[in-house]
Design a protein that fits this description.
Layout lengths: L10 E4 L7 E5 L9 E7 L3 H4 L3 H8 L1 E4 L2 E4 L3 E5 L12 H12 L9 E3 L8 H6 L2 H11 L7 E6 L1 H9 L3 H4 L2 E7 L10 H6 L8 H5 L8 H12 L4 H5 L14 E4 L4 E3 L3 H7 L3 H6 L6 H6 L7 E7 L2 E8 L14 E7 L5 H4 L12 E4 L13 H16 L2
Parallel strand pairs: 1-7, 1-8, 8-9, 9-12, 10-13, 12-15
Antiparallel strand pairs: 2-3, 2-6, 4-5, 10-11, 13-14
The structure holds 2-acetamido-2-deoxy-beta-D-glucopyranose (8 copies).
């Protein structure tokens, strides 16, 4: 690897939920026709969605033991590090790489510009107690130095992970700046839909699933079924549900209404129980270590910038015309809206501000260019990013 110039702070980007590829091996064969090794589990392959569904669920599903989420029994799953640049020309990460290299010609993907893959199934607590965080830390330490401290950029769940990594003193010592895009610090009602209705659209970039779509009758219902089953026990999803103290200033609003009852923020564990997700219901509090992170306030030695949309119509309450139970619910029959970035409510996004050292580091993107998915490749946001990186590179 060529020496990094002092001015070229390496850039590490942490993508959002379900963007990193996952590979796995499965030694148990009660659901799979044979043991499998080194198979691509995410993005799923067409065969996973049809005949191989039960095998796929078994491979991807987490177990819980000794206070943290782990791989299922007999299963190993690991993220693919992004060793090569993303190739799909119009995928958001490919656009991001191309734009960054254009804005700063001294950056070259794989040399001083990296996208880090991670096991997005996990909550931050479990990432910390598995080897996940330490593996990422090692990757960062080996590609940065005390004289060319790094810049972190994180989108959505990836920004939460970046913030968590910055709580490690040896990582923090190697980082001068962190740009957080659209971080859902207080959680978002959008994370409820995959669990109740098998609907992912609000959370994942559309290009991610184009590879697995094939035009057969009933495809949409099939995908919703697979999603609904696939996100059972998904710790990261529970972590991104609205949670009690950080959300809406602790006012505990109703986020879900159904034909028979309503659920406040403080009742999300009860909602998980009602939809049959006993594991996430039982562990709900364990997946919420974010309050502690925010309470710690600004990160010593790291300039934190918060970039997010603030004035786009965003769902605050889901109204179902059925009672939620352990089966796939229809999509909500109505929604109540507030302001936010189209996925995360404004007051959740604003919790990021507490990590900054001043209002000058908060960028509320006007208009619709602050939309949650792909915010980091919006031209207006790229212009902001350029200014922030230039300022950070001047910083010793
Ligand atoms: C899953 O298995 C892989 C490979 O053994 C391991 O690296 C990873 O830490 C495990 N993850 C969890 C959450 O248990
Ligand atoms: C979780 O672990 C328990 C105890 O080892 C085991 O019985 C169960 O099958 C595991 N579940 C999964 C999804 O691997
Ligand atoms: C992830 O998997 C997809 C589908 O197989 C592939 O097109 C893509 O290049 C992979 N990405 C990485 C970073 O390995
Ligand atoms: C990417 O390009 C393909 C083919 O040109 C197009 O069908 C698709 O909609 C594009 N995806 C995005 C996210 O722009
Ligand atoms: C939350 O509290 C802040 C500061 O006290 C206040 O400015 C803001 O309007 C409150 N937001 C809501 C949704 O009540
Ligand atoms: C989870 O936290 C809430 C709010 O702090 C508390 O009321 C509840 O008893 C906790 N639940 C469990 C299972 O610890
Ligand atoms: C927010 O959006 C509304 C409706 O789209 C618009 O009327 C209002 O002026 C905007 N406010 C700000 C501060 O941009
Ligand atoms: C319930 O909501 C679904 C989804 O919006 C809708 O298709 C259905 O017609 C509604 N049913 C009733 C009885 O209102």
């Amino acid at each position: 690897m060529p020496a990094i110039q002092a001015a070229d702070s390496p850039i590490f980007f942490f993508p959002g939920v379900m963007v990193s590829n996952l590979t796995g091996s499965n030694t148990v064969t009660d659901r799979c026709t044979q043991a499998r090794s080194n198979v691509q589990l995410w993005p799923p392959q067409a065969s996973d969605l049809v005949a191989g569904r039960d095998c796929w669920y078994q491979s991807i599903r987490l177990n819980y033991t000794a206070g943290r989420f782990v791989n299922g029994t007999g299963v190993s799953v690991w993220p693919t590090p992004f060793a090569t640049p993303p190739t799909a020309a119009n995928a958001s990460l490919a656009i991001w790489v191309a734009e960054l290299q254009k804005l700063f010609p001294t950056y070259k993907y794989g040399e001083n510009l990296f996208i880090l893959g991670y096991d997005w199934r996990l909550d931050l607590n479990s990432m910390g107690s598995s080897s996940q965080l330490s593996q990422l830390a090692a990757a960062i330490l080996s590609r940065s130095s005390a004289s060319s401290r790094a810049i972190f950029m994180g989108h959505s769940l990836g920004a939460l992970l970046a913030a968590q990594l910055l709580s490690l003193p040896d990582v923090r010592a190697r980082v001068k700046g962190f740009i957080s895009y659209a971080a859902p610090f207080g959680g978002t009602p959008a994370a409820i839909l995959p669990r109740t209705s098998g609907e992912l659209a609000a959370l994942v970039p559309p290009e991610l699933l184009t590879g697995v779509s094939f035009p057969i009758a009933g495809f949409e219902a099939l995908v919703r079924g697979v999603t609904w089953n696939g996100v059972k026990g998904l710790a990261s999803l529970a972590m991104m549900l609205p949670y009690s103290t950080a959300y809406a200033n602790g006012t505990d609003p109703v986020v879900v209404r159904t034909a028979s009852r309503s659920y406040r923020v403080s009742q999300m564990a009860g909602l998980l129980r009602d939809v049959g997700d006993t594991l996430l219901a039982d562990t709900f509090n364990k997946t919420h270590t974010l309050d502690k992170l925010i309470a710690n306030g600004p990160i010593p030695g790291v300039d934190v910038y918060c970039v997010y949309g603030s004035n786009i119509s965003t769902v605050r309450q889901l109204v179902f015309n059925v009672t939620l139970s352990d089966k796939i619910a229809p999509l909500p029959s109505a929604y109540l809206y507030g302001r936010g970035d189209s996925v995360v409510p404004f007051d959740s996004l604003r919790l990021c501000d507490r990590l900054t050292t001043g209002t000058s580091k908060v960028r509320r993107v006007p208009g619709t260019s602050g939309k949650h998915l792909g915010i980091f490749i919006e031209p207006a946001v790229l212009a902001q990013t350029r200014g922030i990186i230039a300022a950070l590179r001047r910083r010793i």
